[in-house]
Every structure is written in structure tokens, then in C-alpha cells.
Amino acid sequence: MARTKIALIGGGMIGGTLAHLISLKEMGDVVIFDIAEGMPQGKALDLCQSGAVEGSDSQLKGTNAYADIEGADVCIVTAGVPRKPGMSRDDLIGINIKVMEQVGAGIKKYAPNAFVVVITNPLDAMVWALQKASGLPRNMVVGMAGVLDSSRFRHFLATELGVSVEDVSAFVLGGHGDEMVPLVRYSTVAGIPLPDVVRMGWMRQERLDEIVDRTRKGGGEIVALLKTGSAYYAPAASALEMVDSYLKDKKRILPCAAYLNGEYGVKGLYVGVPVILGAGGAERIVEIDLNAAERAMFIKSVESVKGLVDACTQIAPQLG
Ligand code: APR
């Protein structure tokens, strides 16, 4: 049986972390593609040597040639520029849309059967652009944001309550921006919905509101601390949770940026929603019931995604 081939398009901070985690977990062989000369080759060589210590037989190769991603089963896209302090994700659009056009052409030519996870920001617009530029089936192209946003929410909740993060499950919907929608009603501690956790007196409502707000701004908090770029450990781990569900056909229900064709009343956009991920890629969008307040927040978030996609079509009309 052929070994799984995972192509990382972009070998920077997230790309390097992805390569390391894939090797440690022996999820497959890795090709790191980047436009920077020598850097992906150097990272791959370093990681191969760490495999000797870790006991990993994953093979890693760094490259500047798209031909090397040929036949990849999975592509994870982090190519582009990250935020610096003071920037919003949306400020990246002008540069990263051009990058998505190049990456889309490379994937179309060499890995048209791959499952593609996009991480590049602004996420919901970049995954839209990548799908357009590559022409791959919409169910095979998804964006990673919801797993990361939910992991931030889970971490804050577990720390606040003093419980294992394993027992906290959280759902965040909508676009990957400050308008995202942490769904308090559908987030639970050992199965207890958060409104009940508040009613039980375990956490004050004001504290929960602060945690929701911190989750929304979770990426910016890290950018402000790092000063040179944005988060990379949790984004890499989150993308691999999605890839694992695809490769093992686990059918996990994970919040992903998925193409909506009428679901949630949205057509023609990628937005964060719960998705069943399996061998067929994004196999099914799970439409959960939203109350009036949640729906209003969701619509606001969708509007900001729409604004970003409109900006993309102005910069790159051929994608529209
Ligand atoms: N093709 C391939 N690689 C590219 C291209 C391109 N056209 N343009 C830039 N790159 C590479 C850079 O050379 C760099 O190595 O993309 C890599 C990006 O890595 P970092 O700058 O370290 O950024 P990272 O922290 O990995 O974040 C990547 O993910 O979360 C998002 O906002 C983040 O958009 C950013 C992306």
C-alpha cells in the first residue's frame, strides 16, 4: 500500500510545525514547498534527522518546485504573509490573494485529487479563492479556523473552571474574524451546556462573556505578544485534526470553513459551520438550530466574509 503523501504549501512557522507534528505522529511522508530557496530543504533535512531520534520513518523533502507535490493525498496551504501587531487578518488580502492564485494553479496541475486544507488568512476569503483558482471539487477544499477558535474557547473555559480540557467541548461558528460566533448554548462541560454551568453558580455570566470576547480576539492576543508573526502551534494541530478525520474516514464533526450552497441561508461563500469530515472530504454540513440572537451574530459574520470576498473579486476579477 502506498504511503500517504502530505504536501505543505508554505514552509514557514505553521508549515514547519505541521511537518514536525506529521513526522512525530507518522501520518505520512511530507513535501514542504516554499518559494524561499533553501529554507524548506533545510527544515526537511533537520526534521529527517530528528526522526532518527524520535523513531519516525516519515520521509520529508523540501522543495521549490511544484512538480514535487505530484500525487499528494493532502495539501495544507499556509503560503502567504501572517499578521504583524496592529494588522487585522483582512489587511493581508492584497498579497495573499495573489499567492492563492499561484498555489491553486500548482495544486490543480499536480495534485487535483487531494483533500486541501487552507490556513492562510483572511481564511474564509482565501479558501474561497483557492477553490476557485484550483477548480477542485468544493467538498475537497476546506478552511481551518473553527477547530482553532474552538480550541481557544475550550482552553479558556477549562482553565477558568479548573477542569480537564478534554471534558470541555465548544462550538464556534461563522467567519474567522472578530465577528466569529462562539456558540455558548452548544458548548458544554462534561455534557452540561454553558448556560446551565452559569445557572449552577459555577461561573458568573460576566466571566463567560469575557471569555467569549477573549476567544474572538484570541489570534490578535498572540500577535501582540509575538510581535513578529501570528500563532502557529495551535493552528497546525487544528489542521491535522481535520486531516486525520479525512485520512481515516473518521467522520468527525468539526467546525470548518465549508462551501455553503443554501445551507444556513448562505449561497456561494465559505463560512465556518459544523461539517462531517471523511473520505469524501466535507461530506455533510450539519445545520444546527440557531436562536434569534445567534442567527443575528451569524448573519453579521457572514456579511463581513462577503465583504472580503467582494474585495477579492475586485483585486482578482478572473476568480469571480
Ligand atoms: N508560494 C509559496 N510559499 C509562499 C508564497 C508563495 N507564493 N508566498 C509566501 N510564501 C511562504 C513564505 O516564504 C513563508 O515561508 O509562506 C510562508 C509563510 O510562513 P510564515 O511567514 O512563517 O507565516 P505562518 O505563521 O506560517 O502563517 C501563514 O497562515 O494563519 C495564517 O495569517 C497566517 O496567512 C498566514 C499563514
TrEMBL record:
Protein's GO biological process: lactate metabolic process; tricarboxylic acid cycle
Catalyzed reactions per annotation: (S)-malate + NAD(+) = oxaloacetate + NADH + H(+)
Entry's Gene Ontology molecular function annotations: L-lactate dehydrogenase (NAD+) activity; L-malate dehydrogenase (NAD+) activity
Active site: 176 (proton acceptor)
Signal peptide: none
Domain Lactate/malate dehydrogenase C-terminal: 148-306
InterPro entries in alphabetical order: L-lactate/malate_DH, Lactate/malate_DH_C, Lactate/malate_DH_N, Lactate_DH/Glyco_Ohase_4_C, Malate_DH_type3, NAD(P)-bd_dom_sf
UniProt enzyme class: oxidoreductase
Family: Belongs to the LDH/MDH superfamily. MDH type 3 family.
Protein known as: Malate dehydrogenase
Organism: Hyphomicrobium sulfonivorans
